[in-house]
TrEMBL record:
Record Gene3D superfamilies: Vaccinia Virus protein VP39 (3.40.50.150)
Location of the Methyltransferase domain: 71-173
Superkingdom, taxonomy of origin: Eukaryota
The protein's name in its UniProt record: Methyltransferase domain-containing protein
């Protein structure tokens, strides 16, 4: 994706980041979602790494009687393709799908239903609007946490804080984390008209590979995959991580 590389690096964080990001995604959601269809395959490839561990294909799965997995998706966008795929492949699953953008969540509800019922009768989703930094869960309560192209919108210090929280929320020994980060260390990258959208002001940051890895390990997460991958569509570099919560 084109986020960090086409944006201008800035020495400082701008003001009102969250309100501006929300306003931008509310305005550009249809343009972003159409543009990113070409990036679906990389998401689904990494997603399979964790769905295969959470619900192995050879498991004796009686979806109606199995207990629902509990999954958190950070910055779920319009719910396609990831939330949709989770509802099916992890059934039964309960997903808390969070996003700061009202427009994105409206599109998600339209596509998947108020609680995912357009996709599954055994799995459910709660759409939770707001800053992911306001989320709270009991310790050791989640089977998986995912964040596709979303944690990158937090300032560096908040990225550290949310990774530490994720480590506490995941179930020791079994919990899994999947997300992508900027390939580069950057305090603040800004695009004024991202995707050529007049209302497409956008902000990203990155801790860099070494600090992201160290933060994850400090949060009790063991790296299973930690890989820099050049995006096939426009050549931006992302750091993809799959990690498991240690026992
Ligand atoms: C690049 S889009 C990715 C959407 C989706 N995960 C996907 O892969 O297509 C980033 C999403 O994160 C959301 N977002 C940005 N900052 C956020 C925050 N602080 N809390 C929750 N969601 C946020 C945006 O509204 C947007 O829907």
């Amino acid at each position: 994706m084109s986020e960090p590389t086409k944006a201008a690096s800035q020495p400082d964080e701008p003001q009102n980041i969250k309100a501006r990001i929300k306003a931008s995604y509310d305005a550009i959601a249809p343009a972003y979602n159409a543009w990113t269809v070409d990036h679906f395959s990389v998401r689904l490839r990494y997603l399979k790494e964790i769905t295969d561990q959470l619900r192995p294909a050879n498991a004796n799965s009686d979806a109606a009687s199995a207990s629902p997995l509990r999954v958190l998706e950070l910055g779920c966008g319009a719910g396609v393709p990831v939330t949709e795929k989770l509802l099916v492949d992890l059934a039964p699953v309960h997903i808390t799908a969070n996003d700061i953008s009202t427009g994105q969540l409206d599109l998600a509800r339209e596509a998947l239903g108020e609680h995912g019922e357009k996709i599954s009768t055994v799995s459910t989703v709660d759409w939770v609007e707001g800053d992911m930094m306001a989320l709270q869960f009991p310790d050791a309560s989640l089977d998986a946490v995912l964040g596709f192209y979303s944690v990158i919108h937090l300032p560096q210090e908040e990225q550290i804080t949310i990774l530490e929280r994720i480590g506490r929320w995941l179930k020791p020994g079994t919990g899994l984390f999947l997300a992508n980060f900027s390939g580069d260390e950057m305090k603040s990258a800004i695009a004024e008209t991202w995707l050529d959208q007049e209302k497409g002001w956008m902000y990203w940051s990155g801790l860099g590979v070494a600090k992201t890895e160290a933060t994850l390990q400090g949060a009790g997460l063991k790296l299973e995959t930690s890989k820099l991958e050049k995006d096939t569509v426009d050549g931006a570099m992302f750091h993809w991580v799959v990690a498991s919560r240690t026992a």
